[in-house]
Amino acid sequence: MSTLTNGAKMLLECLAREGVDCFFGYPGGVTLPLYDAIYDHHVRHVLVRHEENACFAAEGYARATGKVGVCCATSGPGATNLVTGLVDAMMDSIPIVALTGQVTSKLIGSDAFQEADTFGITRSCTKHNYLVKKLEDLPQVVHEAFYIAASGRPGPVLVDIPKDVFQAQGHYTPVTSIHLPGYKVFTEGHTGQIRRAAQLMCEAERPFVYAGGGIIAANASDELRELVELLDVPAVLTLMGLGALPSNHPNFVSMTGMHGSYAANTGMTHCDVLIALGVRFDDRVTGRLAAFAPHAKVIHVDIDPAEIGKNRAADVPIVGDVKRVLGRLNTVLAEMRPERKGRLAAARQAWWSQIRGWKAEHPLAPVTSDSEIKPQHLMMEIDRLSAGEAIVASDVGQHQMWAAQFIRFNAPRLWLNSGGLGAMGFGLPSAIGAQFARPDKLVFALVGDGGFQMSIPELSTVASYGLPVKIVVMNNGYLGMVRQWQELFYNNRLSAVELDCFPDAEKLAGAYGFKGRTIDKPWELASALEEAVREPGPYLLNVKVSRYENVYPMVPAGGAINEMVLAPPQPVAVPK
Amino acid sequence: MLLIISLLVENKPGALMRITGLLSARAYNIESLTVARTLDPEISRMTIVVDVDSTLRQQVIKQMNKLVNVLQAVDLTESPAVRREMVLVRVRTVQETRTAVLKEAEIFGARVVDSSTEGFALEATGDPEKLDEFIDVMRSYGEIETTRSGVVAVSLEPKKLRLQPPVLTEAR
Question: CA 20 to 30 Å from A5, out of A35, A174, A179, A426?
Answer without folding.
Answer: A179
